[in-house]
Design goal:
- The protein is α/β, with parallel strands linked by helices.
- The protein has two domains: about 120 residues, Alpha-Beta Complex (Aspartate Aminotransferase, domain 1); about 240 residues, Aspartate Aminotransferase, domain 2, CATH 3.40.640.10.
- Helices cover about 40% and strands about 15% of the residues.
- The chain is built from 14 helices and 17 strands.
- This is Diaminobutyrate--2-oxoglutarate transaminase.
- Pathway: Amine and polyamine biosynthesis; ectoine biosynthesis; L-ectoine from L-aspartate 4-semialdehyde: step 1/3.
- Keywords: Aminotransferase, Pyridoxal phosphate, Transferase.
- Pfam families: Aminotran_3.
- One of its GO terms (biological process) is ectoine biosynthetic process.
């Protein structure tokens, strides 16, 4: 690993938590160069919902690669793009009675967020955006302005403005009427805060610590937006594409956002791709007004179409619901009793074990380090990185799902036992 430490920038992050050199991957397993297998509860930060090297998707990618088809197309018309658009419309939009146009952005999620913010401001002719404390939306300047993490914002190197943060209905504000607070801001002539062009949110805050927003709260938020002529943007980049069961995480509330950002698993195979869904009446762009050299990733179109097909063929939504119940039951019966201060949150196949009530960041880190030593890749999230984040591929086998959960339990027991001994020795 010395070459990485010598020549790669200090900005590298995940490799510090998982300090081995990986070589192969298949399904829900990653293999280091010495052949050791690791169960993957990370799934490429949500970019690998269909697992590593999914055979169905891979076959279609290989067919395309070996047939000398268009590999780079900007926003020109191509067969690959047409087939993806047709499939997305037939398999996702029409069955759900959703009416959106598709805008292909740059290669990553932050590009879709940037496009959404620009379009909202253009449509409403207002500069401000409301986002939520605990939210994460990307690392380019516009998206970063809507990301609340202090440490991330400090990397900008200049003031981040144009966004006002509202209290999220979780954690310290769980008992607060957060929507009433926003309503008062919008109606009080002395609030000092201008009406925004849009409100941006994740229906499940992922990096913020796995906070699931109540469906009634989501419905009332949409009503508030419509009442005040504010656009509603949902960030589906990490929790969309079936992560919560349904394809979109907002479906459980029966709402229809004005703008929807997608990336990560939309490509199906870990390929760079991002997508903005917009209501037709909001398609106010002039030709080329928002563009990017890699806004037409042809290989990603092929993989994305195959992913939609695989999702239907494998009844993936039903699989996620089944696995959700297993994880929920395990966390409630096996993890929660380990300490009275443990908090469990999640749905679908994104879950958080909040240990902030009894240990510090070092303790939470040690839990994931021990898990890695035992053969499990799992990351942390939330304030102080004290939420263990369970996010396996949606295709994870029940055998590996169970084994991974057992490793988490064992690792937590080890840390809790050690911290208890340390406490007794100091008292």
């Amino acid at each position: 690993m010395s070459i990485f430490e010598k020549l790669e920038s200090n900005v590298r992050s995940y490799c510090r938590s998982f300090p081995v050199v990986f070589d192969r991957a298949k399904g829900d397993l990653l293999y280091s160069e010495d052949g050791r297998a690791y169960i993957d509860f990370f799934a490429g930060a949500g970019a690998l919902n269909y697992g590593h090297n999914n055979d169905y998707i891979k076959d279609r990618v290989l067919d395309y690669l070996t047939s000398d088809r268009i590999m780079h197309g900007l926003d020109m018309y191509t067969m690959a793009k047409r087939e993806f658009i047709q499939s997305f419309s037939e398999r996702i939009l029409k069955p759900k009675k959703l009416n959106y146009k598709l805008q292909f952005c740059g290669p990553t999620g932050t590009n879709a967020v940037e496009a959404a913010l620009k379009l909202a401001r253009k449509a409403k002719k207002r500069n401000g955006i409301f986002a939520f404390m605990g939210g994460f939306h990307g690392m380019s300047l516009g998206s970063l302005s809507a990301t609340s993490s202090k440490s991330m914002r400090e990397g900008a190197g200049l003031p981040l403005d144009g966004v006002t943060f509202m209290p999220h209905p979780s954690g310290a504000f769980a008992e607060m009427d957060t929507l009433g607070y926003i309503e008062n801001i919008l109606t009080d002539s002395h609030s000092g805060i201008d009406k925004p062009a849009a409100i941006l949110l994740e229906t499940v805050q992922a990096e913020g610590g796995i906070h699931v927003v109540d469906v009634e709260w989501l419905r009332e938020l949409q009503q508030l937006c419509r009442r005040h002529d504010i656009l509603l943007i949902t960030d589906e980049i990490q929790v969309g594409c079936g992560r919560t069961g349904e394809f979109f995480s907002f479906e459980r509330a029966g709402i229809e956002p004005d703008l929807i950002t997608l990336s990560k698993s939309i490509s199906g195979y870990g390929l760079p791709m991002s997508l903005l869904l917009l209501k037709p009446e909001l398609d106010l762009w002039s030709p080329g007004e928002h563009n990017g050299t890699f806004r037409g990733n042809q290989l990603a179109f092929v993989a994305a179409k195959a992913a939609l097909e695989f999702r239907d063929r494998s009844a993936l939504e039903a699989q996620v619901k089944q696995k959700e119940e297993f994880v929920r039951s395990f966390l409630e019966k096996e993890i929660k009793p380990l300490h009275p201060s443990i908090s469990i949150r999640g749905l679908g196949l994104i879950w958080g074990i909040d240990v902030s009530g009894f240990t510090d960041e070092a303790g939470a880190k040690r839990m994931t380090e021990i898990s890695f030593e035992k053969g499990l890749i799992i990351e942390r999230a939330g304030r102080g990185d004290r939420v263990l984040k369970i996010m396996p591929p949606l295709t994870v086998s029940m055998e590996h799902l169970s084994a991974g959960c057992d490793i988490i339990k064992s690792s937590m027991q080890q840390v809790i036992s050690q911290e208890t001994q340390d406490f007794l020795l100091t008292t």
